[in-house]
Automatic annotation (TrEMBL):
<dbReference type="Pfam" id="PF09828">
    <property type="entry name" value="ChrB_C"/>
</dbReference>
<dbReference type="InterPro" id="IPR018062">
    <property type="entry name" value="HTH_AraC-typ_CS"/>
</dbReference>
<dbReference type="GO" id="GO:0043565">
    <property type="term" value="F:sequence-specific DNA binding"/>
</dbReference>
<keyword id="KW-0805">Transcription regulation</keyword>
<dbReference type="InterPro" id="IPR009057">
    <property type="entry name" value="Homeodomain-like_sf"/>
</dbReference>
<protein>
    <submittedName>
        <fullName>Helix-turn-helix domain-containing protein</fullName>
    </submittedName>
</protein>
<dbReference type="GO" id="GO:0003700">
    <property type="term" value="F:DNA-binding transcription factor activity"/>
</dbReference>
<keyword id="KW-0804">Transcription</keyword>
<dbReference type="InterPro" id="IPR020449">
    <property type="entry name" value="Tscrpt_reg_AraC-type_HTH"/>
</dbReference>
<dbReference type="InterPro" id="IPR018634">
    <property type="entry name" value="ChrB_C"/>
</dbReference>
<feature type="domain" description="HTH araC/xylS-type">
    <location>
        <begin position="176"/>
        <end position="277"/>
    </location>
</feature>
<dbReference type="Pfam" id="PF12833">
    <property type="entry name" value="HTH_18"/>
</dbReference>
<keyword id="KW-0238">DNA-binding</keyword>
<dbReference type="InterPro" id="IPR018060">
    <property type="entry name" value="HTH_AraC"/>
</dbReference>
Length: 287
C-alpha cells in the first residue's frame, strides 16, 4: 500500500507513518512530495493521500489526522488513545490538550531542523513514537522522582511555596478576565489555548504559564481547563438527557473515550457509572 503526503514532516506526518507501519501495513511505502503535487501524484502513483486538505485522511474540527486513522481502522489499543491527545496538541499548537505536547513539538521541530531528508526523518522519528507508545502502554502513571522520601520532601516544598505565595500575592486584575474567558470557553465549547489567552490579555505567555497556578487552585492551565470541562460534564449528567457522546462534544473532548478517561481520572468513576449512581440516588430519595 502506498501513502503520500506533503514533504518536510514534523508531527502528524511522522506519527501517521509510524501508526501505519506499526498497526496497519508493515510494508507500507510513504511518499513525500511538494504540497501542490500531493493530489496529482496520488493519482499517478495510485497512492492514498493523507494530512492535506480535501482528502479523507486529514484533520476534522479540532482533531488531527492521527485521530482519524484511529477511528477509520478502529484501533482500540488504549496506549494509542493516550498518545492521540499528545500528538494532537503538538500538531495543532495547543499544548493545553496534554502536558507532553510541548515536549513532543520541541523534539520534532529540532529533529526536522537537523535532518533534511524526509525518509531519514521518518526513520529516526519511528524511535520517538516507539518510545512514546512504550511510555503510554507501560508507564503513564510513572513519575521521574521515585523515592518516597524525595516525593515527601517535594510535596512539603511545594506546599510551603504555595502557602507563602498565597500570603504575599494579591490576585492581579488579569485573573478576573481570564476566569471569564475560561468560563466562556467551557460554555460555548470553543478551543482555548494558552497562546490565544495570552494574546487576548496582552500578557507574555511564559509569564502567564508560570503564574497561572498561583491563582487557579494550584493547577496548570491545561489541568484547570480539564477540571472546568469535567465540572460542566457533571452538570450535564445531572440535568440533561444528552448521550455520553453528546456530552463529550459539548464539553470539548475529542471523543467519548477521551472524555471517559479524563472523567474517571477526576472522579474515580466512568461517566456511565456516575449517571447510574445518580439515577439510583434519585430513585432512593423518592422511595
Amino acid at each position: 500500500m502506498k501513502w503520500i503526503t506533503r514533504e518536510r514532516p514534523k508531527i502528524d506526518r511522522i506519527a501517521c507513518p509510524w501508526l501505519i507501519k506499526r498497526f496497519i501495513d508493515r510494508d507500507a511505502e510513504i511518499i513525500f512530495v511538494p504540497d501542490s503535487q500531493v493530489k496529482v501524484q496520488a493519482e499517478v502513483l495510485q497512492a492514498i493521500p493523507f494530512d492535506v486538505p480535501g482528502v479523507e485522511f486529514t484533520h476534522y474540527e479540532n482533531r488531527c489526522t492521527f485521530d482519524y486513522f484511529l477511528e477509520k481502522y478502529e484501533l482500540k489499543d488504549p496506549a494509542l488513545h493516550i498518545m492521540a491527545p499528545i500528538i494532537r496538541g503538538a500538531d495543532t499548537d495547543d499544548h493545553s490538550v496534554a502536558s507532553q505536547s510541548a515536549g513532543l513539538w520541541a523534539i520534532s521541530a529540532g529533529m526536522a531542523f537537523m535532518i533534511r531528508d524526509d525518509h531519514e526523518l521518518v526513520e529516526k522519528g519511528m524511535l520517538i513514537y516507539d518510545s512514546l507508545y512504550s511510555w503510554a502502554k507501560y508507564l503513564p502513571q510513572a513519575k521521574h522522582v521515585q523515592s518516597p522520601v524525595e516525593n515527601l520532601l517535594l510535596q512539603i516544598h511545594r506546599t510551603y511555596l504555595s502557602q507563602k505565595g498565597r500570603k504575599k500575592a494579591k490576585a492581579p486584575i488579569w485573573t478576573i478576565e481570564l476566569r471569564d474567558l475560561i468560563q466562556n470557553h467551557v460554555d460555548t465549547n470553543l478551543n482555548l489555548s494558552l497562546k490565544t489567552v495570552s494574546e487576548d490579555l496582552n500578557i507574555n505567555p511564559t509569564y502567564l504559564s508560570r503564574e497561572f497556578s498561583r491563582y487557579f487552585d494550584d493547577l496548570s492551565f491545561g489541568e484547570y481547563i480539564r477540571k472546568a470541562r469535567i465540572e460542566k460534564a457533571i452538570q450535564l449528567l445531572e440535568s440533561s438527557q444528552n448521550t455520553l457522546s453528546e456530552i463529550a462534544y459539548l464539553t470539548g473532548f475529542s471523543d467519548q473515550s477521551h472524555f471517559t478517561r479524563i472523567f474517571r481520572q477526576h472522579t474515580g468513576k466512568k461517566p456511565s457509572e456516575f449517571r447510574k449512581n445518580l439515577a439510583k440516588r434519585k430513585a432512593d430519595s423518592k422511595g
